[in-house]
Design a protein that fits this description.
Length: about 375
């Protein structure tokens, strides 16, 4: 199989941009990625666009604005994992020899407030059975019971990620916070306070993927896609969350994140101990801690211990979310996973500035999207 390299990266900052369309944000990210790769505006054979809220043929609108249409343009929706799914399909097409150079991009202009999704039937929303803070809170309560997580641990995740976000010019929130401030923010749903929840927002991200050794001679910093995997929940485990709402009786059923991680590690020929830096889903503070366990970064029940040890902080043995995570950046769904890959590429290139993880050679990105789509992308150099 042909090796796949990350030849170019581009990002439109995450935040709120009144008066700017989702297409304009997508165009900005794509332009940057093409320029970074040294690729002309029509120098790719196919394009994969991750988005959930941008409407019909959203990818076509972006490339039409650039005068870059003519080849296949495929829109992909997998909730927060849309970008990860797009990377998997694009990298797979290159590895199989179908294309030499592929554009992958994602963008979103999210409505304000609690995210609504047509994944849920109206009666489920009315009964509070959708992916709302109540749902996240039940997950957090279970994690607290089974892994010794406390409110202080939840606040600690926010403190860590917001401190990292200070050094990310593309993040929405760039101010450090204290645990006391986090716990003083409004209680949304026990035990989650407002600052423990990420903010749906706007932004875009893009990649140029290429068969390794080909193209213009720009080597992308030697960063390759070692694996890209997408998995869904097993029957009964709705949204990959083992909460009372899932209807799951057998707690031994692995989560979609675990299935995707196992597949990605096998594909890459690596294991959790080989990873130097992680960008993982932190829709809420408890989600990051749960990810530690589901990704195999620590044994089940040890998420709080890993955080307490300082392992996941900058300077620790396995920094998690050096970009500031979704808690700092906010989350435009279609750009979420791709934003992680952009950050990991910067880390592996040694271009992350004040948030650089020294010596990083293997990076893992993780998202969980509506419908229990869990994506894992592993980069290495």
């Amino acid at each position: 199989m042909t090796a796949v390299e990350v030849a170019g990266i581009g990002l439109h900052p995450f935040g709120r941009f009144e008066g700017k369309t989702v297409t304009e944000m997508g165009v900005a990210a794509v332009r940057d990625a093409l320029a970074d790769a040294g690729v002309e505006r029509r120098g790719f054979q196919a394009a994969f666009c991750g988005t959930a809220y941008s409407g019909v043929a959203a990818g076509h609108r972006v490339l039409d604005a650039l005068g870059a249409t003519g080849g296949p343009i495929i829109d992909i929706e997998a909730g927060c994992a849309s970008g990860g799914a797009a990377v998997m399909m694009a990298a797979g097409a290159i590895a199989a020899g179908q294309y030499d150079t592929v554009l992958v991009f994602g963008m979103e202009k999210m409505p304000k407030g609690i995210i609504r999704s047509s994944f849920f039937a109206p009666w489920q929303e009315e009964a509070g059975l959708a992916a709302t803070p109540a749902y996240f809170a039940l997950r957090a309560q279970r994690l607290m019971r089974e892994s010794g997580v406390t409110r202080q641990h939840l606040a600690g995740v926010v403190v860590k990620n917001r401190a990292n976000g200070v050094h990310n010019p593309d993040a929405m929130f760039r101010k450090e916070v204290t645990a006391e401030e986090v716990l003083a923010s409004r209680l949304v749903c026990e035990p989650l306070h407002l600052w423990m929840l990420c903010s749906p927002n706007e932004g875009a991200a893009a990649l140029v993927l290429r068969a390794a050794g080909g193209g213009s001679g720009v080597d992308g910093g030697g960063v390759r896609v070692a694996a890209a995997a997408l998995r869904s929940h097993l029957p009964g485990n709705v949204l990959s969350e083992a909460t009372p709402m899932s209807g799951l009786v057998d707690d031994d059923v692995p989560a979609a994140t675990t299935l995707a991680a196992q597949a990605a590690f096998e594909q890459a020929g690596l294991g959790p101990s080989d990873v130097d830096v992680v960008e993982c889903q932190d829709t809420d503070a408890a989600r990051e801690l749960l990810s530690y366990e589901e990704l195999g970064l620590c044994p089940g029940g040890d998420a709080a211990k890993l955080l307490e040890e300082g392992a996941t902080r900058m300077g620790g043995r396995l920094p998690v979310n050096p970009s500031g995570g979704l808690l700092s950046k906010g989350e435009p769904l279609g750009a979420s996973a791709l934003g992680q890959v952009v950050e990991l590429a910067r880390q592996l290139r040694g271009e992350a500035g004040p948030r650089q993880v020294e010596g990083a050679r293997v990076g893992l990105g993780h998202t969980v999207g509506r419908g229990a789509n869990a994506s894992i992308v592993i980069l290495r150099r």
